[in-house]
Design brief:
The complex is a heterodimer of chains A (about 375) and B (about 290).
Chain A: E1 4-13, E2 16-26, E3 31-35, H1 42-50, E4 57-62, E5 65-66, E6 77-80, H2 92-102, H3 107-121, H4 136-149, E7 154-158, H5 166-183, E8 187-191, H6 194-200, E9 203-208, E10 211-216, H7 218-223, H8 228-233, E11 240-249, E12 252-258, E13 262-265, E14 280-285, E15 290-291, E16 303-315, E17 320-326, E18 329-335, E19 346-352, E20 357-359
Parallel strand pairs in A: 3-8, 3-9, 6-7, 7-8
Antiparallel strand pairs in A: 1-2, 1-4, 4-5, 9-10, 11-12, 11-14, 12-13, 14-20, 15-19, 16-17, 16-19, 17-18
Helix pairs in contact in A: 2-3, 2-4, 3-4
Chain B: H1 2-6, H2 12-43, H3 47-52, H4 65-72, H5 84-114, H6 120-129, H7 139-149, H8 155-178, H9 183-192, H10 196-204, H11 209-225, H12 228-233, H13 241-250, H14 258-293
Helix pairs in contact in B: 2-14, 4-14, 5-8, 5-11, 5-13, 6-8, 8-11, 8-14, 11-14, 13-14
Chain lengths: ~375, ~290
């Protein structure tokens, strides 16, 4: 196990810059998730860490050793691939021990290691099978077993769960989390699934266009998105973005909201809106901050109750999503399923702006920092 | 029993059509087999019978004399040792040529598909052109080359010619097959610590059986049946069986011994026949596998 430092890494293919100076440093035993839309460069970054692709500029350090120009096999890294990449001609046992064999580990030690890994992942009964005889979930386990067997310094997971069906994916997600807790390994994990990112990561790096948009704990990223992109990418359903006019009331900038009536919402950091009075900003408000009126929150600062017109409701069991229109933007509200909200009716909803964020409409830059 | 219950009824017309279909098929099959049957029958008759009987008349007795003569004592040009030495020549040319061209093709395909480098697509395209070069075009330059290399008129020379000419095809076969192998397999093996040749030998080759069979059959048939390169580049002692067969048929003292000619021709065709019988099934399977995924 080791730490990993990615120092100003750039990657160019001819004129196109895929990675535009990535700086990430990961502590020993940390679980880092790279997340972002397809084409954001996360897989390229992963391949660069593994040494499967050369970087054009910058350095990569594993365990404080510069490995930028070291070949993949000497970096002491194991990788789990999206397609699992199991060797089709070998049994599960041979698949797991292949890496050890290549490193000239004696047969007895290999057998011991295979047994250990197989027990850990509960695949002991599959050791004699070929990959073609395994189900998707079993293949996934074998692929992880192959990575674990070598006890490398660093594990790379490249969208390992995206080929599994929804139920199995949730199961394996938990399993990976448990495994990480148990083994305390350093992991870099690529995914485009933001729920996976939220649930697994110690820290998340949100990437877009070859740049890290934000690097932080899942809660930081969720509560304090650095910009409009991060705010919109993390969270499901996504954060509501409401174009709102900044108006001044009693010397304090407020955000104007037009539903069936017009109200002005208070904002925790009014001073950041000073320069925007009379202009329009984007108010970011997560769905769970717009709820049915809750008595215990009544009277708290930054809580405003107003009327909205229900467009559609989407019952999800635990909550019901209410779609409505505010300032001409469609927004999602999360309410108690018991709260009466018929489509077309006008109901009271409570807007809690204590965790609201505001962005510049053009640049998408966060204003209240 | 339950199958019968759901079986559809066959009307008289259906039956008649079926009979007609099989009749047509049998006639066509017989038509295609005819030359071989005539060869076989003729080879079993003696010269007298051939002269008096018709093409299709059966031999009075099974007479294998012409076979042994064709094998060991018929005259081809100047020498009178049958075609057996040339038969062996052919094996000496075909076996190494097939082995080398298949191996090189496999390596080429492996590199072009799984170790792409700058210009590898162009390299492959250039290689493909080789599939469309007619034999005749390379005769003179190849003769020149063989002379420079000092292997003109030798078995090694012929092996060289067939390897060079065959690589375009074998590369194409293997490249198409390897296109269907995910690149992540190679990446995984590299991280596991395997090198270029280890990956090829331990991971790629073991899954290549279908395409190896296809390539071996293709190359074996091509090289065994080749006449032009054989006649152009072989020496007196290194002629392949196809050339010897030609010489045998064209060498006659007195009357033409059709029975010996036919026997020799069948002997010359036996190895390719055997290859098809034993591996034909894989051939079709492998060809489609390569074609569909390529």
């Amino acid at each position: 196990m080791a730490n990993l430092v990615i120092d100003n890494v750039k990657k160019r293919y001819g004129e196109t810059e895929i990675l535009k100076g990535i700086n990430i440093s990961i502590k020993t035993g940390e679980f880092l998730i790279l997340v972002g839309p397809s084409g954001c460069g996360k897989s390229t970054l992963m391949n660069s860490i593994a040494g499967l692709e050369d970087v054009s500029e910058g350095r990569i350090l594993i365990a404080d050793k510069d490995v930028t120009y070291t070949s993949p096999k000497d970096r002491d890294i194991a990788m789990v691939f999206q397609s699992y990449a199991l060797y089709p001609n070998m049994t599960v046992e041979q698949n797991i021990s292949f890496g050890l064999e290549m490193r000239k580990v004696p047969k007895e030690e290999r057998d011991v290691e295979v047994q250990r890994v197989a027990e850990l992942l509960q695949i002991s009964h599959l050791l004699d099978r070929k990959p073609a005889q395994l189900s998707g979930g079993q293949r996934q386990r074998v692929a992880m077993g192959r990575a674990l067997a070598r006890r490398p310094q660093l594990y790379l997971f490249d969208e390992p769960l995206s080929n599994l069906d929804a139920k199995l994916r949730v199961e394996m997600r938990t399993e990976i989390k448990k495994l990480h807790k148990k083994l305390g390994t350093t992991i870099v994990y690529v995914t485009h699934d933001q729920i996976e990112a939220m649930t697994l990561a110690d820290r998340i790096a949100v990437m877009k266009d070859g740049q890290v948009q934000q690097l932080g704990t899942p809660q930081e990223i969720y509560d304090n998105p650095a910009n409009l992109f991060v705010a919109g990418f993390m969270g499901s359903p996504a954060m509501n973005f409401i174009p709102a006019n900044v108006v001044e009331q009693n010397g304090t900038p407020m955000l104007e909201l037009a539903t069936s009536t017009t109200v002005a919402l208070p904002f925790p950091k009014p001073e950041s809106l000073k320069d925007y009075v009379g202009k329009t900003v984007l108010l970011g408000l997560r769905p769970e901050m717009i709820t049915e009126p809750q008595p215990h929150k009544e009277g708290q600062p930054f809580v405003t109750t107003t009327d909205i017109e229900v467009e559609v409701t989407e019952p999800m069991g635990a909550d019901t999503m209410i779609l409505t229109r505010v300032n001409d933007a469609e927004i999602n509200c999360r309410s108690n399923p018991m709260y009466p909200a018929a489509a077309g009716s006008i109901i009271k909803m409570m807007f809690d702006t204590s965790k609201a964020v505001v962005f510049d409409q053009e640049s998408g830059k966060r204003l209240d920092v | 029993m339950s199958n019968k219950a759901v079986g559809r009824k066959t009307s008289g017309l259906d039956k008649a059509l079926r009979v007609a279909l099989y009749t047509v098929l049998l006639v066509v099959a017989a038509f295609y087999l005819m030359p071989f049957i005539v060869m076989l029958l003729t080879s079993l008759k003696d010269v007298e019978e051939i002269r008096t009987g018709t093409l299709l008349s059966l031999p009075a007795t099974l007479n294998f004399e012409s076979w042994s003569k064709a094998w060991s004592s018929a005259c081809t040009g100047g020498s009178c040792g049958g075609i057996s030495p040339y038969f062996m020549n052919s094996f000496q040319i075909v076996l190494p040529a097939v082995a080398i061209s298949t191996l090189v093709g496999a390596l080429n395909g492996y590199v072009i598909s799984l170790w792409k480098f700058r210009g590898s697509d162009f390299f492959f395209a250039a290689m493909l052109v080789g599939c469309f070069i007619p034999f005749q075009v390379i005769l003179l330059p190849m003769a020149q080359t063989l002379g420079w290399l000092g292997i003109a008129n030798t078995t090694s020379g012929l092996v060289f010619v067939h390897v060079v000419y065959g690589i375009a095809f074998t590369t194409l076969f293997f490249r198409n097959f390897y296109q269907s192998i995910p690149g992540e397999l190679v990446k995984a093996a590299r991280l596991d610590g395997a090198g270029f040749f280890t990956i090829f030998y331990r991971i790629i080759l073991p899954v290549s059986t279908p395409i190896i069979v296809v390539t071996v059959i293709w190359q074996f048939t091509q090289i065994w049946n080749d006449f032009l390169f054989g006649v152009a580049f072989s020496g007196f002692d290194t002629q392949p069986v196809t050339v010897a067969l030609n010489n045998l048929v064209n060498t006659s003292f007195g009357g033409k011994e059709y029975n010996v000619d036919m026997a020799a021709a069948i002997i010359a065709a036996l190895p390719t026949l055997a290859v098809y019988v034993f591996a034909g099934k894989y051939f079709v399977r492998g060809l489609t596998a390569g074609a569909v995924k390529g």
